[in-house]
Specification:
Structural class: alpha+beta
CATH architecture of the largest domain: 2-Layer Sandwich
CATH class of the largest domain: Alpha Beta
Distance between the termini: 43 Å
Strand order of the largest sheet: 6-5-4-7
Strand content: 15-25%
Mean pLDDT: 89
Shape: elongated
Helix content: 40-55%
CATH topology of the largest domain: Beta Polymerase, domain 2
Low-confidence stretches: none
Radius of gyration: 19 Å
Amino acid sequence: MLEQLFGSRTRVKILRLFYANPDQDYFVREITRRIGEQINSVRRELNNLSKIGILTFEDKNRKKYYTVDQSFILYSELRGLFLKSRMTLEKRMINKIKETGSIFYLALCGYFIDDQNAPVDLFIVGRINKKKFNNLLEQFNADFGQELRYTAITVDEYNYRKDITDKFLYDIINREKVVVIDKLTNKK
């Protein structure tokens, strides 16, 4: 949707990256890696966005570091637009994850709720087709402009970890998160 509105997939990915991380600065090759686009198109769009005033840049150690200009007159409106777009992406991602297997529990943590200290961004309990899931995750990493971290465990492993009071599991259980699927609460 935003690609059609803005006319460039690369521009949308760059804006999504910067509006999701407004206090972060990035250099060109880092942006290229994060969004999975060609360096020439990234350079062209960075130049366009800088001319408009959406992005600013600073030379450090012979590299240009770009950041979003939070004083840009349309900053709030654009950030709101990209956050709403992110919600649409998240819904699509959740539906695609459901198709990868038999999922009893799915929680969005970390990146999805702006918790940088969370150990994972996605926590899944159930059986998933790992190849299908990893392909899907690669696609969403590019869409979100973020390397999503996940843990997928079986129901038996979940129960075992819960019984032994596994520190990692209880960190996730006790941490703020958005629970999308929960078929475990009715189980022993």
